[in-house]
Amino acid sequence: MDQQTYETGLKIRSEVLGKEYVENSMKSADDFNKPFQEFVTEYCWGAGWGRPGLSRKERSMLNLAMISILNRPHELKLHIRGALTNGLTKDQIREIFMQVAIYAGVPAGVDAFRQAREVFADQAKK
Amino acid sequence: MDQQTYETGLKIRSEVLGKEYVENSMKSADDFNKPFQEFVTEYCWGAGWGRPGLSRKERSMLNLAMISILNRPHELKLHIRGALTNGLTKDQIREIFMQVAIYAGVPAGVDAFRQAREVFADQAKK
Amino acid sequence: MDQQTYETGLKIRSEVLGKEYVENSMKSADDFNKPFQEFVTEYCWGAGWGRPGLSRKERSMLNLAMISILNRPHELKLHIRGALTNGLTKDQIREIFMQVAIYAGVPAGVDAFRQAREVFADQAKK
Amino acid sequence: MDQQTYETGLKIRSEVLGKEYVENSMKSADDFNKPFQEFVTEYCWGAGWGRPGLSRKERSMLNLAMISILNRPHELKLHIRGALTNGLTKDQIREIFMQVAIYAGVPAGVDAFRQAREVFADQAKK
Amino acid sequence: MDQQTYETGLKIRSEVLGKEYVENSMKSADDFNKPFQEFVTEYCWGAGWGRPGLSRKERSMLNLAMISILNRPHELKLHIRGALTNGLTKDQIREIFMQVAIYAGVPAGVDAFRQAREVFADQAKK
Amino acid sequence: MDQQTYETGLKIRSEVLGKEYVENSMKSADDFNKPFQEFVTEYCWGAGWGRPGLSRKERSMLNLAMISILNRPHELKLHIRGALTNGLTKDQIREIFMQVAIYAGVPAGVDAFRQAREVFADQAKK
Hints:
6 copies of one chain form a homohexamer. The radius of gyration of chain A is 15 Å and the shape is globular. Chain A has about 130 residues and is mainly α. In chain A, helix 4 (about 55-70) packs across helix 6 (about 90-105), helix 5 crosses helix 7 (about 105-125) and helix 6 (about 90-105) runs antiparallel to helix 7 (about 105-125). The model of chain A has no long low-confidence stretch (mean pLDDT about 95). Chain A starts with a helix and ends with a helix. Chain A has helices at about 5-15, 20-30, 35-50, 55-70, 75-85, 90-105, 105-125.
């Protein structure tokens, strides 16, 4: 493990997904999934998100489109929250999901809109 | 239908997924899905799993990777249980899902780890 | 927007998915998803389903196979209901899902059968 | 193997995909892929296509939609030829692929149209 | 068809993918695929790309990520060219494809990089 | 970058995919794809394949199944060669691809068998 890349990853992951969420993920990790948590933190968040060349806002845009197509609702909701944190507006999120519907098909768009509305409703309650 | 292949399939399916589960599936089958239950038992479990050339442990390894990518959580959980029955350790399951994350992307890995932890938690309760 | 295509779309969508469902979708739409609801109604239902050349029954057959493979359970259930409305029998639905299992794999078939049985059970209660 | 199901499969496969093509597939099979050729013939063509409940034309319709989405151009071309043999018109094939574009996205539709035009151009040469 | 949306779509499509390419697509269209060409132009390029809310550069970013995952090399190459036209740099394209590799897996990234290098090599020849 | 993980990755990658192939990949890398080549070497081959817990033979088995489903023929051929290097027999490869056909559908199996036969034919020529 490259300690510096890991630290960078942990910092970015916490800033994008929320400190509380990341601390819980790390604390609840056991022998089974700890190596995976560390791997994701170092490679995805440190070596990936830590790279220059795209802003966090742009990386969030890509993720909303990609994770919609990859059909992973749990991760999509996390990254819709992260996208708002990174400065995307609801209008931009709508445009991304409409483009998803055109390129990946209407059902992918329908699911993305449903999940976004659940996230917005959750946040309105708080 | 080839009766012998069907019988072989029923036996292997029961040994891997559990006698109770398979008996319930068969008993609860109605006119609508009975032909499918028989088809799966004969072809997938008899003509597929019944072949020589790979051990059950190896077939379970393949299934964990494939079903993670195919994104079918209900089936994945069944086959995580089956993999434990077939002798895979939790450490091996972790390695499979880390390889899934690398080749099919981090969100596929995240979902696979979450589902495995749910299965392990369920089993710990019993 | 082409008003006539939109009206055609709204009519077909209501006839296939149910008037109540479509009215609810339209009424509950907010600034965020209203453009998407209109887009889907005009393009998918008006410019798509509104075309000659295939019967509604045939379009339902295609949708059951496609949405099973696209792995969108919420949409699949809607379209199983729509398929019954469009005159497909349960026996035809079974045959479609068995063909899905052969061409897209057993887990896709298993999920499609499970979702169909949930729809049928729901309808039997009413 | 169920000999009768296998024979049925061989007959249907030859009628749909062409006698010459199937004979070549079988003749060129070696130790490596012969078990697979036999499995596909029995399982997919005998136990699947051999079932009552859907016409061959309907099964071809499903296959064009499914194989477009599964993104398998070589198989798609075979089944476009088979669809013409089973009585689908070019207009019906266009409608199927337009529905694919709506439900699975524009790039899936673009590829399906390109492959169909290649098949039609090939046949026009003969 | 909404004539104005169609005209907008034709203009944007020509500006992004190149006038020559679009004119050839339209001219070579026959009875079989003309309705699809018109549909794509109106729906994808007029009603989709014609919307405000995202810049063309941002829409290109999304498309590179989405079409890589959708695994459509022919379309991906077109949109890599379009992305350069819309002002994306090679460095930004690299960052997008590295993010694809992390979220959709290494093989999706390897293919995207290979196709981009083919496009760049083609352009260097001219 | 963690230099030691990178070195481990370079070594394993060369042993599995062939020294010549990996040296060519590295030598032909330019400003555009060099960061990706290094990322894949460190992350996929060092931090992934370099882990204990599964043998190389087992990792090859998983890769053949996964890359078939991910539908990446260029990578699949590389990994069929790698699988032979890692000690898988042709009979084991056949069994893996038959299981792919059952779980991911017949067209995925057909393509995997075709690509394997191309690799075997290439190797027979040398």
